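Internal tracking record. Fields below are filled automatically when a chain is submitted to the structure queue. Please do not edit lines marked as system-generated. If the sequence contains nonstandard residues, flag them in the REMARKS field before resubmitting.
Queue: standard
Priority: normal
Entity type: single polypeptide chain
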Amino acid sequence: MSLDGLAQWWADKSTAELVWLGIGLAAQLMFSMRFLIQWIATERARASIVPETFWYFSFVGGLMLLSYAIYRMDPVFIIGQATGLIIYSRNIY
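SYSTEM-GENERATED OUTPUT FOLLOWS
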């Protein structure tokens, strides 16, 4: 994709679409942070562990991704994230 093509793509997006794109990217970052948290905790403990914080990042990231999936009306993405939220909630409880 050329720089002109990228500029045209950006110009064609509504403000709402750009906001949802930002939410989707932030959600993915939040969800990905759980692996960094788990890696740091494992290195500190010198054993493979899953800290409680991992599940909070999983839940918040999953909830944000579910919101994005609902906005996109993607049933596969919705089912995957909704199922994950049940598991994350149980592990936090």
